[in-house]
Amino acid sequence: MAKPKLKPKPKTAKRKAHRRSGPRLLDMPGLWANRHLQSAVATLGRLMRTPLPTGMTIAVIGISLALPAALFVVTENLRTMAGGWDQAAAISLFLKQDIDDAAAARLAEQLRARSELAQVHLIGREQALNEFRALGGFEDALSQLKSNPLPAVLAIYPQAASSAPERLQALHDELMTLPEADFARMDTLWLQRFQAILDLAQRVVLLLGGLLGVGVLLIVGNTIRLEILNRRIEIEIMELVGATGAFIRRPFLYAGAWYGLLGGLTAWFLVTIAVILLQEPVSRLATLYRSEFPLTGLGPLAMLVIFSGSVLFSLIGSWIAVNRHLRGAEPG
Questions:
Q1: Is residue 17 part of a domain?
Q2: Are residues 271 and 157 in the same domain?
Q3: Using alpha carbons only, what angle is made at residue 326 by residues 42 and 33, rounded to the nearest 5 degrees?
Q4: Within-domain flag for 114
Q5: Any domain includes 324
Q6: Is 181 found in the same domain as 276?
Q7: Exposed e or buried b for every residue in 309-318, given b needs 16+ CB within 10 A?
Q8: Tens-place pLDDT, residues 90-146
Q9: Which family does it belong to (predicted)?
Q10: What backbone phi and psi angles, to 5 degrees, belong to 4?
């Protein structure tokens, strides 16, 4: 009997099977992410195998970033403290000595009727003397007084719309024209000057942060340059076997990113430790002034700025170093 002839498989089936063996388009993002993850983990492992130079570089970056971060924390705490001082009277009106508490109360009622004033508090002569006596240290001097030398005082709080410096000055001048007034003091003038000093300090922090960010860029760039020189032969071999520039550049960029991330984490750790160590003496000082002031560290937004800025400057430094020195590492 004749053997049946087997039909040959069509060539199109082979081609389809061959096509199915390669990566599909939908798998490309996963493959790309997997390669970058492997490169990032391998780069971190390479850095951990040289702990001393890696730790020194991270420490330098962390200290460089901790300085502007610490100044920022100081200015923010001072601004919070100044916010509590905003409750002080905008204008203290000292009445004449011959004005008793009853006349001072009538004047306070007249001023409360004015729309531009939010509150008017009367501090009577006896109340002022008792508060002065409560401060301590003046008992002997006060016991020698035959009469109360302190005048009645009106603590005047203007509305928010009338708190501008020019309006406060106009209100101050108007109060001085009252027949009961002896003199008036603007209690918020020093606070406005203090806020201006804090605004200036904040600008200095931003400028210092930018300069030290450039310093981080140079530190990481020089570190990556030395790493390229140490791996020059390895880079030449990779180029000979056909490695692309992106493949060669990738581990150095991840090294810069790791330096920036770990340096930012070090800066946050240093600032947090400083805040914890200073909290007790600050609380003790606030207690002497019958107050309390909890220090605040870096908030989420400040931490995000530090980490992102550190990583960004480090990546820029790595990119510059790689693009500059890889050309010199190419085989002739």
A1: no
A2: no
A3: 35
A4: yes
A5: yes
A6: no
A7: bbbebbbbbb
A8: 788 888 888 888 888 888 888 888 888 888 888 887 787 777 766 655 666 666 666
A9: Belongs to the ABC-4 integral membrane protein family. FtsX subfamily.
A10: -70, 140
